[in-house]
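note to self: dont lose this again. the chain is below, predicted strucutre after it. 517 aa total, dont forget to put it in the shared folder this time
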Amino acid sequence: MAPSGETFVRKNSEGYGSDSSISDNLEELELENTLLNEERIFVNKNLNMSKITCYGFDMDYTLCEYISPQFDELAFTLAKQWMVENLGYARSVLDIEYNQQFGVRGLWFDRRAGNLLKVDQFGKILDCCHGFRMMKSEEIKEIYPGKIQRKDDARVFVMNTLFNLAETFLIAALVDHFDQREDYEGTATGWVKDGKEFTFAQLFKDLRTAIDDIHLYSCLLKKNCLTNLPKYVKKDKRLPVMLERMRSSGRKTFLLTNSDWWYTRQIMNFLLGVQGGRDDSWLSYFDLVVVDACKPRFFSTGTPLQSVDTSSSTLVPLSSCPPGPAVYSGGDHATISTMLGAKGPDVMYAGDHLFADVIKCRKLCEWRTLLIVPELSHELQVSQKNSALLSHLSKLETLLADNPQLEELKVRLWEAVNELNQDFGGSGSLFRSGSRLSYFGSQVMIWADVYTGSVNNLAGYGMEHRFVRQPVKLPHESGMGSSRRISQDMADGEDEELDSIQEGEEEELLHEHVCVN
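---
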């Protein structure tokens, strides 16, 4: 755990503090700078930790860090087996092998056209795959006028969570599988075999049924995970130290998870239990434990608050006072805040689900948010490796703004974007395509107060730390002259310029390129 002293940013640090206080502040800054990039917490909105009295934590992919690709491949294998054994899919589906390089979180699946889309915050399509084939610009325009697909819940399913990684790959693999079969004739909405239509929508519905079963009904994913926890769940020695430090400083901690008690107690005992001790010893790290939270509904209407009989894993009325430690099921954010004796802004909640843990929380209550992005370590490594390429990309965009008709610049710009995307993986970066933020990236910037790769990175910061974002300037405040023309001219023309490359000089490259290496 990195040492920490006085907070670096204080009210008296604006030129009015003593020399000694400024020296202390600089020491704190130096300590923060010693943190590895992957251990840092990144700031979207100012957050003064000294005002946080309660720390809340999600479990799955937050306190419990599942190991990738082992856990993803387990879900992928169980889902395809379920589809074969329960829905009658051909056994050839079992021959599909998992590719961890394909897919990132946050892609949209279009049920009507069978495509995986990476879009920006306005629905502008940045990349589009049909099966494993990257589609060319003209193909995209034929299906999506203006290369835009709005977030229509009836048509689009957003792969919001890391649990969705397995099905992101599997849906692409299944589309590719049926495209390759000679007994299936492709149509705009799916395939026809022996005169019977089989749509992309039906395929995805079947896949979702399989995923829901292994997660929620048969619980095959959880059961298999529990048989070999060291293979699928990472233990971090910083976790107990971090929680103990929070409690010893007078803060309260609580666990708030959608998982049920049966699964939660086994995962948390593995992470925080004492070997040879009681199975519920881990509960001492928390002032409150809530399972079956039903987020995002938890942040709006909520569900009835009940007690959990920890000996039988059954739910009982609050008035029954079951024996054993107090564990609750359901509830809502207002009730939990009251039980903790906290006001909204006093609470910081850490979770990995951008929509259910962060966006709905920020929209419907005053809790502060820490978004956990486990992919961040990989994103940082690739970004550091390609820092020169990122700088080159920025220069090309600036030059192109001044010289919009220079074809050579357009070619070089597309080559730079394509090279950068491929270094991140088959579907590019989680946060962007080239210089343009993805839908996921823009939502992170808008809604998460702070974000990091692991919840345990909190251990590297003092309890009084103040997170301060870099000042944000509007274009007219950046000091750029009008001659640079980095304005609406470039914003409007950028897509058309890249399209011309895809359709012209780079057509052969795109024709051969597929998402899976």
